[in-house]
């Protein structure tokens, strides 16, 4: 039982590692909006599987659902940050990106509160608690089609300048947005002369060694701060 509990908890992180590893390839090939839409479907399917686990008398469904949730979360975190940053006006970009961390923490708090035995953590309602992760995914699945694709993606990867201008007007209203388009073109020119490193190449690159050490130490110490025990 202890082994099964451990696997059930940790398999979310394994799925997250796989999801985040494939996020760059998927965003370049399909675009951020399409990836987010498909990712919402994945989360809804995972929530449905976990929600039906008690009726089916299957703990394996919880394992599968947790793994799928991890893959979805691993894809969503970098995708969400990129998409929100790219569709926001320059003066609001920093604020828009910071809201991700706020809602991430708020979601954890809501989950902890909802998991109390007096609410959804009871013996009869816990499947609803596990399926509740599909609610925000469903909301985003319904609302996201009304948003355009990321303007930088349209211009840099698709070469669709008209589509980029149309997306910018839809997001930021009518006006002169040539400066933003010029910035995207400069970024595109810079990327042509910049080599994109794989994860293995990044680890081997000496110039990034100290930054990498810092990130690893910070991430490791966060796990040791007691949050998992809580």
TrEMBL record:
Location in or out of the cell: Membrane
UniProt entry keywords in alphabetical sequence: Membrane, Transmembrane, Transmembrane helix
Source superkingdom: Eukaryota
GO molecular function: D-glucose transmembrane transporter activity
Biological process terms in GO annotation: D-glucose import; dehydroascorbic acid transport
Keyword Hydrolase attributed: no
A GO CC annotation given for this chain: plasma membrane
Transmembrane helix is among the record's keywords: yes
SUPFAM superfamilies per record: MFS general substrate transporter
Domain Major facilitator superfamily (MFS) profile residues, every copy: 1-230
Segments passing through the bilayer: 6-25, 37-56
Bilayer topology annotation: Multi-pass membrane protein
Protein name per UniProt: GTR5 protein
Organism of provenance: Leiothrix lutea (Red-billed leiothrix)
């Amino acid at each position: 039982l202890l082994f099964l509990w451990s696997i059930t908890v940790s398999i979310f992180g394994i799925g997250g590692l796989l999801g985040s590893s494939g996020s760059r390839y998927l965003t370049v090939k399909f675009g951020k909006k399409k990836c987010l839409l498909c990712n919402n479907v994945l989360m809804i399917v995972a929530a449905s599987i976990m929600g039906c686990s008690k009726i089916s008398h299957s703990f394996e469904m919880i394992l599968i659902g947790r793994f799928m949730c991890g893959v979805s979360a691993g894809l969503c975190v970098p995708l969400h940050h990129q998409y929100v940053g790219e569709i926001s006006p320059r003066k609001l970009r920093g604020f828009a990106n910071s809201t991700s961390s706020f809602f991430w923490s708020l979601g954890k708090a809501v989950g902890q509160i909802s998991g109390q035995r007096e609410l959804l953590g009871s013996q009869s309602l816990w499947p609803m608690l596990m399926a509740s992760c599909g609610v925000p995914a469903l909301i985003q699945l319904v609302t996201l089609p009304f948003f355009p694709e990321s303007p930088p993606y349209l211009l840099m990867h698709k070469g669709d300048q008209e589509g980029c201008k149309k997306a910018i007007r839809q997001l930021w209203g009518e006006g002169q947005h040539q400066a933003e388009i010029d910035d995207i073109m400069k970024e595109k020119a810079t990327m042509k002369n910049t080599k994109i490193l794989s994860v293995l190449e990044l680890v081997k690159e000496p110039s990034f060694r100290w930054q990498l050490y810092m990130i690893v130490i910070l991430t490791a110490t966060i796990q040791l701060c007691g949050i998992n025990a809580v």
